[in-house]
């Protein structure tokens, strides 16, 4: 029998999609990459997925794991060869266990992030991973890319929120380390090897996650600042005085607000967009209550006013107002899409060097293409900027993406000069695969290639992502 016939026999024809039925899974979320596939398969559980992998190995067929398909670097899109099997984990979407005494929950990889948040909330706990795509992204994808989000400052990346994994290897073996232990010092840390590997070393099928107490109060403020330097001063002041209560510190440029106002006029902006060049959305989660949280907020913001660190401030008076402020932050990428295709950069820079990095790199980009627009926003608290380059508002707009390689080089050379990383939370995928060796330590790349060869010698797991096939099999 053919591979397609074997897959149908294994999991049923209704769970093997071909032709037009498969087309929704062939293009990435940003519409930058479109591939072809032999089939999309939807296994029901880990054992079935393991058998799918074994069949693909026997047929020498590439496998592309896919969750919510919300990635930004083309990491879940097959090549154009048409020989790949997309393994969709959407049926593996159960919450397997919630242990409030141990503050853990175990979920299948196809669980939507928002459903995991809701399950934790229903149990009186908090699962703090939060990002714009939480209504459609999956836990497996979050872990495969080591997603960050808005609360990394307090709780860490996806890696920091995971205690154990279940993984199917390239040979179809099931590795079960779904322990709910904070301490397990029994050899190599296989969990962290698979997290962030983008499905190139194994397919994550389930995870044991950390839960936290729900805060008694959450308070949000929107601040207007005269400069980047002031934003860093307010960040350091907030860290000192709020300590672990500081859960979010998001930087937003005036250009970001201006495009939201222009293209998404229904979204409320608390200040006129020309109030200041920079804005900060700050949030604290307090364990004592609303009054205590607001008192702390007002004291810290008052001190920042006295020290000329902020120009204006709005403190949310209700959950609705807080949600509106976060909606404003989350609307920036939507407004960017209305402006035109942007060249997006998900970078990390030491916070102490960010001000200088932005000034110098902005100037280099303007020199390269006068009139270029900079949409800069992100998680200042953990050193992560979405440093997005938008087209000039002229005839060059149509062919702007043809300059991607040149703009990447300007930005990434500058990131490297400032001891940063070319990928903070979005991963490498195929977007940055060929650029990565230029900016990562040569010996670190050598070790990555050795690990890939050892765990996936036939290069069938998500080939062409993170490391090119040429690098793996020279």
Automatic annotation (TrEMBL):
GO biological process, one term: respiratory electron transport chain
Xref: SUPFAM superfamilies: FAD-binding/transporter-associated domain-like, FAD-linked oxidases, C-terminal domain
Pfam families in UniProt: FAD-oxidase_C, FAD_binding_4
Molecular functions per Gene Ontology: catalytic activity; FAD binding
Database matches in InterPro entries: FAD-bd_oxidored_4_C, FAD-bd_PCMH, FAD-bd_PCMH-like_sf, FAD-bd_PCMH_sub1, FAD-bd_PCMH_sub2, FAD-linked_Oxase-like_C, FAD-oxidored/transferase_4, Oxid_FAD_bind_N
Domain of life: Bacteria
Keywords: FAD, Flavoprotein
Domain FAD-binding PCMH-type: 33-214
Cofactor: FAD
Classification via PANTHER family: BLL6224 PROTEIN (PTHR43716:SF2), D-2-HYDROXYGLUTARATE DEHYDROGENASE, MITOCHONDRIAL (PTHR43716)
Similarity remark: Belongs to the FAD-binding oxidoreductase/transferase type 4 family.
Name of the protein in its database record: D-2-hydroxyglutarate dehydrogenase
Species name: Taylorella asinigenitalis (strain MCE3)
Record lineage: Bacteria, Pseudomonadati, Pseudomonadota, Betaproteobacteria, Burkholderiales
